[in-house]
Amino acid sequence: MAQEAGSLKAQLKEKEKEIAALKNKLAQLEKSHASVPELQDKVTPLSPLTTKPALSNEDIMRYSRQLLLPELGVKGQLNLSRTSVLIVGCGGLGCPLAQYLAAAGIGRLGLLDYDEVELSNLHRQVLHGEENQGQAKALSAARAVKRLNSTVECIPYHLQLSPENAVQLIQQYPNSYIYNVPTRYLVNDACVLSGKPLVSASALRMEGQLTVYNYRGSPCYRCLYPVPPPPETVTNCSDGGVLGVVPGIMGCFQALEVLKIASGQGSSCGQQLLMFDAQGFRFRSIRLRPKQADCAVCGESPSVTQLIDYEAFCGSAATDKCRKLNLLSKDQRITVQEYKSVVDNSGPHILVDVRPTVEVDICHLPFSLNIPLSSLEQRKSEDIRLLQQRIIQLKQQMADDHQPPVYVICKLGNDSQKAVQVLEKMSGSELDSITVKDVCGGLMAWATKIDPAFPQY
Ligand SMILES: [Zn+2]
């Protein structure tokens, strides 16, 4: 009897241990599930942000170093926890911005991006890691932010901001931040129509800019730029290049201004444009022209009272990547496959690579002649002479008296089209008569469709 009871007790103890282990496992699982934000592919109404009446002991410990600042204090910290910020673009600017806002204790962060993480992003988009390649950027950023501060509510959006969803989305967030050109007008207008300030920055090559639009009577983006720039003059990071730390610095400045606005100190950047020259290590602050009474969206009698078609307005696509120019007719262009057969058949021709030398140093086709587009546009005499010599040589090789064919290539097929237009003007005057064609899609099309061993950058 006593023996049986003893055995049962031992069994019971064993079962209790098992139950405790299962409970623990379940709690861990629930905790980790709750901390993984769910990716949103559309805009859904958000529940109001739960407002903290006071700071917890953990909050006090976590934020102690900034709580000591008289400029912030407990009141400012509580204001941060009651603020939601929408970050449009989780790239080079968005990563440090999200990181510092989360670290500082912003209540809710909306993270919007329609791209996936690529290897070429990692030098500047420091929230993503090698293991996140191919993952939605918004989700990768949200996970990284959650690791840093699990008390921040993170909502990753894997969607493209459009006139249909922008106002609905932006109305749910007091502050916003923007990205490329068509999106810039879209976000500006949505912010003006929703009465939100817009902390905007950009970074390209070795330069950065920052300003706060639509804030306490400051101008909006349209007040300053009523007309979009011609699409062919807009450079982005994938064709202009950027040193990773430059957007890093500008993203930190954005975080600074957002934190000042959100905590209640206010931004002093409203009427100013901050310019950062990383090469010369100089900051300059330019006073902006004031809010314009005749502004199409924030003026006295606005013509934009709801969102419009921004791609049509700007003449380019709203994503950073797929900006494709169409300057030439079909017979002025050939595909990479067609060019490949010219090469395979040893057809006499000249291939002019119009990329800047720095890109030619990264990779090039061995038989190409490098004359940068800028040299052609400026009619640089040594380059023009070189090209003329090659045309004469080619004419001697050709059996017939056809015009020597010149093909023009660049990285993606935009600059090469401009170069074709320049060369056509020169043909028969500054140069012997030639037939000029653009190689569609450039070297990146060559890399994806013809030669997979050719480097992509
Ligand atoms: Zn305006």
Entry summary:
Helices cover 40% and strands 14% of the residues.
User: CATH homologous superfamily name of the largest domain?
Assistant: NAD(P)-binding Rossmann-like Domain
* Approximate shape: globular
Going across the biggest sheet, name each strand in turn: 9-13-12-10-11
Secondary structural class: alpha/beta
Task: Assign the CATH class of the largest domain.
Answer: Alpha Beta
- Mean pLDDT over the residues: 91
Question: What is the count of structural domains?
Answer: 2
Proportion of residues in extended strands: 5-15%
Q: What is the gyration radius calculated from CA atoms?
A: 29 Å
Number of helices: 18
The distinct ligands, each listed once, are: zinc ion
CATH arch. level architecture of the largest domain: 3-Layer(aba) Sandwich
Counted beta strands: 13
- The end-to-end distance, rounded to whole angstroms, is 80 Å
Would you identify the regions where 5 or more consecutive residues have pLDDT less than 50? none
CATH topology of the largest domain: Rossmann fold
Classify the helix fraction into a percent range. Answer: 25-40%
Biggest sheet, in brief?
Answer: 5 strands, parallel
What would you say this structure looks like, in words?
The longest helix has 34 residues, at 2-35. The chain has helices spanning 2-35, 57-62, 64-67, 73-81, 94-104, 137-148, 166-170, 181-194, 221-224, 237-240, 245-263, 310-314, 336-344, 357-360, 373-377, 381-397, 415-426, 442-449, and strands spanning 84-88, 108-112, 153-157, 175-177, 198-204, 207-213, 272-277, 282-287, 333-334, 350-353, 369-370, 405-409, 435-439. The mean pLDDT is 91. The strands form three sheets. Strands 9-13-12-10-11 form a five-stranded parallel β-sheet. The chain has two domains: 33-314, Rossmann fold (3-Layer(aba) Sandwich), CATH 3.40.50; 330-449, 3-Layer(aba) Sandwich (Oxidized Rhodanese, domain 1). Helix 6 links the parallel strand 2 (108-112) and strand 3 (153-157). Helix 5 (94-104) runs parallel beside helix 6 (137-148). The chain is of the alpha/beta class and 457 residues long. The protein binds zinc ion. Zinc ion is lined by residues 219-220, 222-223, 291-292, 295, 297-298.
